[in-house]
Amino acid sequence: MENAAVWGRKLAAGLLELIYPTRAICMGCGSAAGFERKWLCEDCRKALPRNWIGAFPEEKLDGAAAAYHYGGPAGGVVRNLKYRGVLELAEPMSADMLRAYAQIQPTGAELVVPVPMHAKRLRRRGFNQSETLARKVAAGLGLPFEEGIVRTRNTVQQARLAGEARRKNLKDAFRAESVVSGKRVLLVDDVYTTGETARECAKALRDAGARSVSFLTYAKGGE
Fold first, then answer.
1. Phi, psi at residue 16, to the nearest 5°?
2. Residue 19 has what pLDDT?
3. 14-18, 56-60, 78-82, 129-133: least confidently modelled range
4. Cα–Cα dist 217/198, whole Å
5. Residue 89 CB neighbour total at 10 angstroms
6. Is the separation of the CB atoms in 192 and 165 below 8 Å?
7. What would the mean pLDDT of 59-84 be, rounded to a whole number?
């Protein structure tokens, strides 16, 4: 159920739409030149395929894939979903994520789980972008969705940290629920940077009895 923060964002977005129509602003580069489809201007639509990734190696996971490199249009798309609350972007983003996922099959995934957000940050933002994407991915794969993991500490944002500090920040910050026991889990996030978040979530899932953990994200690198 949407909370007051989400409704507030929608109201603000509606007011902005009257002044600066969203569809006149490219979600990739911010250009006001306009676009005809996929929320991107012509230049960004041409640039995005050049940043395609697909499957990539991650030794702590049973398969990993990303749609695009964070640099370029994909980073702008992520930021507009996450910080501007343009939830409509989840549809094209998840479609590209599903194409990337096809490159790491067969994972035998039985359950889709998002990287969680701490309750305090969730109340402040109003939604978890990873959950929004995970629900779309689960629907596209015809798999059940479960929140599955709880963030037990309100950690510092990883983007503010580097190196060893990132690992220490997330150590034992997640707890998985019993619903993942015996399941092959597909873990979904919006961005993969150093992989610390994905690895810590995977550890929590395995500690709770998950048979395997594969990972899917929209963008790799960046914040």
1. -65, -35
2. 47
3. 14-18
4. 10
5. 22
6. no
7. 95
Which of left, alpha, beta for 210 (phi over 0: left; psi -120 to 50: alpha)?
beta
Q: CA geometry: angle at 153 spanning 150 and 156, to 5°?
A: 120
> Across the chain, where does the E strand assignment appear?
52-55, 64-69, 111-114, 149-151, 174-176, 184-192, 212-220
Three-class secondary structure of residue 222 per DSSP: coil
| Three-state SS at 20 | coil
- State how far the Cα of 87 lies from the Cα of 126, in Å rounded to an integer: 12
Each residue of 37-49: pLDDT tens digit? Answer: 779 998 999 999 9
Query: Average pLDDT, whole number, for the chain?
Result: 86
User: Which one has a higher pLDDT value, 160 or 27?
Assistant: 27
Q: What pLDDT is recorded for position 169? A: 62
Taking 3-state DSSP, the helix, strand and coil percentages for the chain, each rounded to the nearest 5, stand at: 45, 20, 35
Closest CA to 124 of 6, 1, 2: 6
Contact 99, 93 (CB under 8 A): no
In angstroms, the CA 89 to CA 39 distance is 8
Beta-strand ranges (E) seen in 64-117 are 64-69, 111-114
Cα 26 to Cα 20, 33, 39, 79, 104, distances in angstroms: 12, 7, 6, 12, 31
DSSP 142: T
